[in-house]
């Protein structure tokens, strides 16, 4: 009886925390009622409804020693790649929450990471003015694309995965044909 009353009170507190956009406090109240084999499961619709409002916030992935600058999830939700200010790219297996690889990009900040639409290639960009392509199957570096005169600020794949677009602080957009990236098309004068 007391446990049920405590549950009801905690769910009211959780809902109020949600209303005031306090995600951590909401999840703290909900986490008190994760399944426990020694106690009956009190969770009802209301608990699952509140928990479902935060599907992406159920866990925090850690591992970078420098500030995180960019992240992307693979299209199949198997991997997450994150890049930091020190030039490291961490690859995590989302199912196991395990770090599987650290790629050393450079001594310079990572500004963007992006998985190709088919999930076979990871593109990274950084302050060192390069874009690097990594094969996801073994995380080996396949190519380094050069052409920007200043930091590559962002990258994005075309829907078919055949082209990569990069935006640089040199006020240019470059469109790279991934099969033959030596001569990107440049769109200058974007200010």
Give a short overview:
This protein is of the alpha+beta class and 191 residues long. It is built from 3 helices and 12 strands; from the N terminus they run αααββββββββββββ.
Helices, strands, pairings?
Elements lengths: L1 H18 L3 H9 L13 H8 L15 E6 L5 E6 L3 E6 L4 E7 L5 E6 L5 E6 L3 E6 L4 E7 L5 E6 L5 E6 L4 E5 L7 E3 L4
Antiparallel strand pairs: 1-2, 2-3, 3-4, 5-6, 6-7, 7-8, 9-10, 10-11, 11-12
Helix pairs in contact: 1-2
Report the structural category.
Answer: alpha+beta
In the predicted model, the low-confidence regions spanning at least 5 consecutive residues are: none
Strand content: 35-45%
Query: What topology, given as strand order, has the largest sheet?
Result: 1-2-3-4
Number of helices: 3
- Overall 3D shape: elongated
Number of separate strands: 12
Mean pLDDT: 87
Please describe the biggest sheet, giving its number of strands, its sense, and whether it closes into a barrel. Answer: 4 strands, antiparallel
Helix content: 10-25%
Distance between the termini: 66 Å
Order of helices and strands: HHHEEEEEEEEEEEE
Written overview of the protein:
- By secondary structure, this protein is of the alpha+beta class.
- The protein contains three helices and twelve strands; from the N terminus they run αααββββββββββββ.
- The chain has helices spanning 2-19, 23-31, 45-52; strands spanning 68-73, 79-84, 88-93, 98-104, 110-115, 121-126, 130-135, 140-146, 152-157, 163-168, 173-177, 185-187.
- The strands form three sheets. A four-stranded antiparallel beta sheet has the order 1-2-3-4, with no helix packed on it. A four-stranded antiparallel beta sheet has the order 5-6-7-8, with no helix packed on it.
- Strand 11 and strand 12 form a beta hairpin.
- It is elongated and about 70 Å long.
């Amino acid at each position: 009886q007391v446990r049920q009353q405590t549950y009801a009170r905690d769910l009211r507190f959780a809902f109020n925390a949600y209303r005031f956009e306090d995600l951590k406090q909401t999840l703290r109240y909900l986490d008190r009622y994760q399944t426990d084999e020694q106690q009956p499961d009190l969770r009802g619709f209301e608990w699952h409804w509140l928990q479902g409002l935060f599907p992406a916030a159920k866990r925090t992935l850690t591992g970078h020693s420098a500030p995180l600058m960019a992240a992307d999830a693979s299209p199949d939700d198997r991997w997450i790649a994150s890049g930091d200010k020190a030039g490291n790219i961490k690859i995590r297996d989302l199912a196991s929450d395990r770090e599987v690889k650290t790629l050393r990009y450079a001594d310079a900040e990572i500004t963007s990471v992006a998985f190709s639409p088919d999930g076979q290639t990871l593109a990274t960009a950084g302050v060192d003015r390069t874009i690097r392509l990594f094969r996801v199957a073994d995380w080996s570096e396949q190519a380094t694309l050069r052409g920007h005169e200043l930091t590559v600020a962002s990258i994005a794949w075309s829907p078919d995965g055949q082209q990569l677009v990069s935006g640089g602080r040199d006020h240019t957009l470059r469109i790279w044909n991934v099969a033959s990236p030596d001569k990107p098309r440049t769109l200058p004068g974007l200010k």
